[in-house]
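User: Can you recover a sequence for this backbone? Please restate the input before giving your answer.

Assistant: Of course. Working from this structure:
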């Protein structure tokens, strides 16, 4: 059953990636950054933010990308898409202090050496932290994207999410590779 659910989420991620990929030009094989962007987009669907963490009305849901990398285009292509009745806004930031007002913070691998400092500086409530930095969840991040056997999967640090007031869907937790409390 878990394998079926895992396959379903991977398929859903790829279905989301297809339009993202087509925005960039010629069709071709789906890249790892595109799959990771699709996972990020889908994670938002399975998170419940505390009251006050989301702006009122139909204001945008903001994803901040912290760090540098040539892999940002698939994430930036999420801008303008709809999730939870809100338009997604993606913005590149250079310092963690600039994540004020965002609901999701994706930390690029370029920030590996500053990760502990960054996680301490993230607002304590309402910001979902995601990264593909190795051991992200064990270092205090909430959702870590990992590649195993050429497949992108994810780990969850449930304790970190709960401390930030975020509720992660049991459906998402069932699909995670591992859960850190």
């Amino acid at each position: 059953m878990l394998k079926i659910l895992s396959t379903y989420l991977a398929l859903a991620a790829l279905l989301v990636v297809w339009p993202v990929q087509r925005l960039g030009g010629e069709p071709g094989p789906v890249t790892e950054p595109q799959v990771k962007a699709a996972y990020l987009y889908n994670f938002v669907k399975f998170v419940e933010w505390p009251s006050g963490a989301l702006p009122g009305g139909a204001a945008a849901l903001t994803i901040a990308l912290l760090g540098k990398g040539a892999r940002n285009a698939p994430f930036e292509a999420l801008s303008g898409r709809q999730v939870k009745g809100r338009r997604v806004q993606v913005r590149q930031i250079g310092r963690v202090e600039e994540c004020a007002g965002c609901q999701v913070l994706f930390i690029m691998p370029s920030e590996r050496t500053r990760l502990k400092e960054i996680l301490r500086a993230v607002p304590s409530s309402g910001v979902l932290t995601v990264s593909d930095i190795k051991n992200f969840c064990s270092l205090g991040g909430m959702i870590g994207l990992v590649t195993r056997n050429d497949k992108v999967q994810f780990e969850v640090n449930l304790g970190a999410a709960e401390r930030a007031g975020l509720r992660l869907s049991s459906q998402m937790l069932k699909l995670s590779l591992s859960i850190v409390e």
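That completes the design. The chain is about 35% helix and 25% strand.
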